Amino acid sequence: MNTPQPAKTPLLIAWIVVLLTSTLPKVILQEVFGQTISMDMQAVMSLSVIFIALLASLVWQPLRGLRPFLILFVVLVTSQWLVFTRIDKLPFFRDRLQNPSFGVYILAEMSLNLIVTLLMIGTLLLMRKKPADFYLARGDIAAPVEPVRWMGVKQGERWNKFGALMTVLISLGTLAFLILAGCPSPDIVILVLPFLPAVLLAAALNAFNEEVTYKASFLSVLESPVGPRQALYMVAAYFGIGHYYGVPYGIIGVLLAGFLGWFLAKSMQETRGLFWAWFIHFWQDVWIFSFMAIGSIVPGGG
Which of 86, 125, 126, 217 is most buried by its number of CB atoms within 10 A? Predict the structure, then answer.
């Protein structure tokens, strides 16, 4: 089936906005020019780009279709700035974020991220979108998988089997990396068991927050003006670049997170739901947060 080609002008503008409001300018300014970029400065730079595009959409007909995407980006950038430079300083959150106990500070951090996610959901509802319109639904977990030659995905495969297989493979890859990087001793692993409820809750919340905030929401407002395939690439690029300062650090982190962003967003498009994206992401976070818990009880640990 031939997919209609998106108009070049909104496609170009959408890519410019995605790249300039991602972590890319911060990475270039810090890594190449040695400039320290605060969250305040990054928010100003991002909002400047978005508002210029918004103004252009008011006078330039080809860009009108991008307006929901641009408005959603304003909400994302503004809410993140408010939550992580103002709300996190309130005594309730400040005290918990500074608490050395993993179970306390991780759930406080996830609660702050949840505020951003709920604001994004509220904005989409105000745009008169139904939850299923932005993938806030279980979806068809046995939907057909679109073939991907370089991954060995053939015609006829379905997400109920393919999703389960990829959950195992990606989880094992994440676990192997963490073990090689952290080398925890068996006695430390046992000490982490009391943190398991906090690990599972934090993983569930973080997977939900990231899949809704950075993928489902933007897929829903980008698919129409730029096409499903380009929307997929944009979501992957934004998500991947945002992990430059993550674990693993640098270009490798960007590529791995970019692939995961593309793959999870692909699962949403093909199943029209959040289940597989959330489920796969959840298990990665279970391992990651488990090792963070280990770090919190090791002297000098992270």
Answer: 217
Domain count along the chain:
1
Mean pLDDT to the nearest integer, 112-136: 97
Domain of residue 51 covers 8-297
Mean pLDDT of 156-160: 97
148: its two tokens: 């991907």
In this prediction the pTM is: 0.93
Q: Is residue 3 one of the residues assigned to a domain? A: no
Looking at per-residue pLDDT, the higher value among 8 and 191 belongs to 8
Q: What is the pLDDT of residue 302?
A: 40
CA dihedral 22, 30, 43, 269 (to 10 degrees): 10
Is residue 110 assigned to a domain? yes
**Residue 185 burial by Cβ neighbours in a 10 Å radius (0-12, 13-18, 19+):** exposed
